Amino acid sequence: AKDSGKDCIVFYQPEMSDLATVRLTYESDLRRALRERQLQAYYQPKFDLSQQKIVGFEALARWIHPEKGMISPGVFIPLAEELNMIDQIDAAIMAQAVKDAMSWRQAGYDLVVSVNVSGRELERGDELAQRVEVLLEQYALPPQNLQIEITESVLMELTERVQQALNALRGLGVSVAIDDFGTGYSSLSYLKNLSVDVIKIDQSFVREITRVREDQVIVRAVIAMAESMGLSVLAEGVEAEEQCRFLRKEGCHQIQGYWISRPTPLEETFPLLREYDNL
Ligand code: C2E
Ligand code: CA
Ligand code: CA
Ligand code: CA
């Protein structure tokens, strides 16, 4: 199956019944999930190749359904977008991530937590930055400890509002990463007008990087471009040591992937941090 490599089981397959019925069930289930806190942030480490340590975690939403078990975001995020519930989900995960970032700080770790934000939220201009500011104050988290990830496809049509939203975030001191870089089929011209901090190379370029020459050429070019623009580069989906070795040799700054760790609940991040001798 397509998702066999993932850490979640996919439920609610559309072919199981009429799609409309499935959506209805979903909508009320999702509302309940938000109310009853069934949505949980799992954390996947970002490993810095020169410092040789974990420098941050990405928060990834998991729906722990009381009867159906864990549902993958690949299933419920697109539906939540359709049902206009994505903002609430993103807000819930962000609140959890900021709160959890404080428990890392209290344990003595200085880490960046990153959260995924749906493009539609950015279309509303600096509203997001205002909410982020309130949240950071509430938990007394320094803005440098928070990062926002936006998929490249959002930046393809870089409207003034999106630009405004990103500038407002960076104005607070929060950093911005472009997610799934290379999959947007976009012209690179948006990079000229946009202030971002990190480029995340999509895992489709990393998967076969030790064998496929074209992937190697693309990854090299992205690293060179990022370097000359003063951006940091992270490679996603690193599953094996050879991929890690290649990326290190090419000067990639950070990696993320099963090779370091799968996404885990907060409690399991502490043994990981100890394992990588982070303090
Ligand atoms: P993404 O932001 O590109 O996240 C990376 C995905 O790749 C995650 O899938 C992660 O578990 C998976 N992954 C990490 N390392 C490896 C690896 O070495 N090999 C492979 N094969 N996969 C790896 P996940 O957690 O299922 O999330 C899927 C997507 O759902 C995310 O892609 C993101 O776009 C979206 N998502 C997750 N949480 C949220 C959220 O809170 N809000 C929004 N708006 N979107 C979210
Ligand atoms: Ca992401
Ligand atoms: Ca990605
Ligand atoms: Ca993705």
From TrEMBL:
Ranges of residues in domain EAL: 23-277
Signal peptide: none
Annotated protein name in UniProt: Putative signal transduction protein
Section covered of the full-length record: 524 to 802 of 807
